[in-house]
Design brief:
194 residues; mainly alpha; 3 strands; 63% helix
């Protein structure tokens, strides 16, 4: 059950950890970032993006290529904040819908370029004003100065993680490579030979 008062959450966390010291302000900030990001994404995917059958990630990929024009896949993935593997699947889906095209790089056969089709350009010109209206809705309780301050604070967090995150992960893992991620599913049992 959710508790509306931060003090209740802090007490519950401390009760679980006993004498282990916990800094509640950073925990509260990270929890709020996560909840805000999830709420915003869900709102967009269930409103303006649903009307055009796009996921958040698909929209971001279209946005990056719409704004910057034809670009290498690795740059699209970097700008969209997703892995190259995720981009491959998203780009394939967008190609299948006729919104994006993939072509070989003219001077390096190992690379590929992504560009919007005329249909993709038309879709983005249609959907972006609606998307921006929802951005205004989501930030509605804040003044323009508060919005800019919030954006600056969040950018500082991103820079912290992007600049120092790798060395921090290595420190936490004693220099070891991280183990592969698991999906949460149990491994399949070995088949019985007959």
């Amino acid at each position: 059950m959710k508790k509306g008062v931060a003090g209740d959450t802090e007490k519950a966390v401390q009760a679980k950890l006993g004498d282990t010291p916990v800094r509640h302000e950073p925990r509260a900030a990270v929890a709020a970032i996560y909840r805000a990001a999830a709420a915003v994404r869900q709102h967009f995917e269930n409103s303006v993006l649903r009307t055009v059958e796009l996921s958040w990630t698909s929209f971001v990929v279209l946005w990056v290529v719409w704004i910057w024009g034809e670009m290498e896949t690795r740059r699209v993935a970097e700008e969209a904040g997703i892995s190259k593997g995720t981009l491959t699947g998203v780009a394939r889906t967008l190609q299948g819908r006729g919104l994006m095209e993939r072509s070989p790089h003219p001077s390096d056969g190992r690379l590929a370029l992504l560009a919007l089709t005329p249909e993709g350009e038309k879709l983005m010109a249609q959907v972006f004003p609606q998307f921006n209206a929802e951005e205004s809705f989501v930030t509605g309780p804040l003044s323009d100065d508060e919005i800019l301050h919030l954006a600056d604070l969040l950018r500082r967090i991103v820079v912290q993680v992007e600049t120092h995150g790798e060395s921090r992960r290595l420190e936490l893992l004693n220099g070891q490579d991280p183990r592969p991620r698991r999906s949460g599913r149990r491994p399949k049992a070995p088949e019985q030979g007959g």
